[in-house]
Design a protein that fits this description.
2 domains, disordered C terminus, Rossmann fold, single chain, globular, alpha/beta
């Protein structure tokens, strides 16, 4: 199954997922068969990459999950995770659920031996096509959209959040922190605006319908409490956004608040930074997003459950000097550029190819799966 939980599903996401698969396939040997399904008769080497957070071992102690174990994943030769935390959780799960498995650790990776098969598990943080966001030449439609967004704000600073509708994205917690910010700092009223773009997701599921209602009620309460005739504290959009609009919002924002309660990576954070060729803007990033491992060099890290501290960090982000913005953003952009999606594909495909020795009819083959 193909799934991207890290960022909202936009109009161009279907082609973007295909791009990642093609990118991975192009990194495999010319003889390699790269696909999203495993055929045990034809494939000698196989790898699977998890775009989701891997749960802690305690999760598998739930009596309702009795009999659940990671043995299915161990059919693969290589397992890729987003973060070191995910890898540790997986290893703890193996130790708890499969006590007879043999684990060895070297160079940041684990080898799991069970039932005569060896599996390598490692960390391969997924990323973006940096150049598709980083170009310094702004297309006229993007430039026009940036100017339109800024004009609509009437000089107020912009905090931007872009999420697909999901309880893990921390939208309600973010709105609570923003309300607290306005309550504590009346001088910011009419001086700052939160634009919350929520991309529709799983609209047929009652829990998601209820979440949407709760979000919209929270937006209404904030706007009712603090709004003025010429100022709407929260501009809320429930819709998909085009690539052009997305880059324009990124480039117009003073602060990007990317604060999920849990996320495998969250590529919105990386896209925002890559878009800022001007080295301006601040990133407020949840400690529970996989991207925090790489971007804490410049991001303002926050625990989204701590509303009071969250509000303080938003205030700090709005008050960053241009020079400090530049230092932080430059460091993050260098990191993202050095670890783009092509490097991710190179590392993962290389380990898939080199993990095992195999000689058979038709020569060695490999396949990759992304879920």
């Amino acid at each position: 199954m193909l799934s991207q939980s890290e960022r909202p599903f936009r109009q161009d996401d279907r082609s973007d997922v295909v791009k990642r698969g093609s990118c991975l396939g192009s990194r495999l040997s010319p003889d390699a068969g790269c696909g999203f399904h495993q055929d045990e008769r034809a494939i000698a080497r196989s790898g699977i990459f998890s775009s989701h957070s891997f749960p802690a071992a305690g999760y598998f102690r739930d009596p309702a999950l009795e009999g659940t174990d990671p043995s299915g994943l161990l059919q693969f030769d290589v397992i890729g995770f987003q973060t070191a935390r995910d890898l540790r959780n997986f290893v703890d799960c193996v130790r708890h659920c499969l006590p007879d498995a043999r684990l060895t650790h070297a160079e940041g990776k684990y080898e799991v031996s069970t039932n005569g098969h060896r599996t390598t598990a490692g960390v391969y943080p997924i990323s973006i096509d940096y150049e598709s966001f980083a170009g310094e030449d702004i297309d006229p439609p993007v430039l026009e959209r940036v100017e339109s967004i800024k004009k609509s704000l009437a000089g107020s600073q912009l905090i931007l959040s872009v999420d697909r509708l999901d309880y893990t994205k921390g939208i309600l917690e973010r709105l609570s922190a923003y309300r607290l910010l306005l309550s504590r700092h009346p001088e910011l009223r009419e001086k700052v605006t939160l634009i919350q773009i929520t991309v529709p997701s799983r609209e047929d599921i009652p829990e998601y319908q209820q979440l949407r209602v709760r979000i919209e009620n929270s937006v209404s309460r904030i706007n009712g409490e603090f709004g003025r005739d010429a100022w709407i504290p929260v501009q809320y959009f429930y819709r998909s956004v085009s690539h052009t609009d997305l880059i324009a919002y990124y480039r117009a924002a003073d602060v990007a608040a990317v604060t999920p309660l849990r996320d495998g990576m969250n590529l919105v954070a990386k896209e925002f930074c890559a878009s800022r060729f001007d080295n301006r803007g601040a990133l407020v990033l949840s400690e529970f997003a996989g991207a925090a491992d790489e971007l804490r060099i410049g991001a303002l890290i926050v625990n989204p459950y701590d509303a009071e501290r969250f509000a303080d960090v938003l205030h700090d982000a709005l008050c960053l000097s241009e020079s400090e913005q530049a230092v932080r953003m430059h460091a993050m952009r260098l990191e993202i550029e050095a670890r783009d999606v092509y490097r991710w594909a190179d590392l993962f495909a290389s380990d898939c190819w080199n993990t095992t020795e195999f000689v058979g009819v038709g020569g060695p083959r490999a396949a990759g799966a992304y879920y």
